[in-house]
Write a structure and sequence with these properties.
Elements (H helix, E strand, L loop, with lengths): L36 H12 L3 H10 L18 E5 L7 E5 L4 E4 L13 H12 L4 H8 L3 H21 L9 E9 L2 E4 L4 E4 L3 E8 L5 E6 L4 H9 L8 E4 L8 H4 L2 E3 L15 E3 L8 E3 L3 H14 L7 H12 L5 H4 L2
Parallel strand pairs: 4-9, 9-10
Antiparallel strand pairs: 1-2, 2-3, 4-7, 5-6, 7-8, 11-12
Helix pairs in contact: 1-3, 3-5, 4-5, 5-9
Length: 337
């Protein structure tokens, strides 16, 4: 079900959007039961009513706003009660009788730092969830790019906090491909008031063949002492099989786990391919696997399109966003209080 602000056929699991689905189909199809819960909620709100009371009720149901009866965020011993506040845009607020503190109903939520109405903010969250660029979202919503950028930044901050609390961890029976890439992000040149390319930024990437989960870590350099703690935090099981190229920094993996080196052969503009099949030494139940790193090499092409000419100050948040999107979980998991 699409609302009036959708621009064409949009899907959060496809790599592109199309204005005319009969002329161009999405790049890939899927049969997952994944539901765009925030998108469905926004559509339901926009069709039910424009009243703020109805919007507040839906957001409290999804635990995106504090509800009466929740613990006070300041004293943690009091209970929040609903009070009337004519000065607030929603016409109500929250009050703790223990510490005598008044709160806006947006307190502590992703809506706390925006002046948009709750209905407009929900629509912006939906547009972020379907990977709509900021300039397109601004045109679809009839808002300035600055307002959309601020809201996108708040969403990415929440996603970053969620990923720091729930890092990507690969299972013991997973096959993980590891590779590195470097970026040249933009930074501000204060002397000329313009943007220029900054120093090289290394990114260590890991992707699971079975789960499709992605772990990304920014590194200062590509030495073993630097990247080893970044890789080991996502690989707690020694039984996890890993594949990488023959770079010297990955040699330590062969001493601590089932690690295999892929032979990189490039023909024209194609990906690196090695069709040799090997039998895993310790976990024979998984059978044969193809020894290549095409998954991570293919992911880098999409990753560079997403990063584009991002500013160096936003690289960390974009890495966490890429990790979060690979988990295929609803967006309200990161926005929930």
């Amino acid at each position: 079900m699409q609302s009036h602000f959708d621009m064409g056929a949009l899907c959060s699991r496809c790599w592109r959007t199309t204005r005319n689905t009969r002329a161009r189909a999405p790049r890939r199809t899927h049969t997952s039961t994944y539901v765009h819960t925030i998108g469905d909620t926004c559509d339901a709100i926009s069709q039910l009513s424009e009243r703020e009371d109805d919007v507040v009720g839906h957001l409290r149901r999804w635990r995106l706003l504090h509800r009466p009866g929740d613990a006070c965020p300041t004293c943690t011993s009091g209970v929040l009660i609903h009070v009337r506040n004519d000065a607030a845009p929603e016409g109500s607020g929250l009050y703790c009788s223990t510490c005598n503190t008044r709160y806006s109903i947006r307190h502590g939520s992703v809506f706390a730092h925006t002046r948009l109405s709750l209905l407009q903010a929900c629509k912006v969250i939906h547009l972020w969830n379907i990977r709509m660029p900021m300039h397109m979202a601004a045109r679809a919503m009839g808002l300035s790019v600055k307002v959309i950028t601020s809201m996108y930044h708040c969403i990415r901050e929440r996603v970053k906090s969620y990923m720091l609390a729930h890092p990507v961890v690969f299972a013991a029976d997973e096959i993980v491909e590891i590779d590195e890439c470097y970026l040249r992000p933009m930074q501000t040149d204060k002397s000329r008031g313009a943007y220029r390319k900054s120093q090289r930024q290394w990114v260590i990437g890991m992707i699971g063949r079975n789960s499709g989960h992605v772990a990304l870590e920014a590194a200062a350099d590509h030495r073993t002492d630097t990247i080893r703690p970044l890789i080991d935090r996502h690989l707690p099981h020694r039984e996890t099989a890993t594949i990488s190229d023959k770079d010297r920094s990955f040699f330590y993996l062969a001493r601590v786990r089932d690690h295999y080196f892929s032979e990189k052969r490039k023909v024209g503009a194609s990906l690196y391919v090695d069709t040799r099949e090997v039998l895993l030494s310790r976990t024979r139940s998984r059978g044969n696997m193809q020894l290549h790193s095409n998954y991570i090499e293919g992911y880098w092409s999409h990753f560079r399109k997403l990063i584009g000419t991002a500013h160096s100050s936003s690289i960390d948040m974009l890495l966490y966003e890429c990790e979060f999107r690979s988990l295929d979980i609803p967006i309200e998991s990161a926005l929930r209080l």
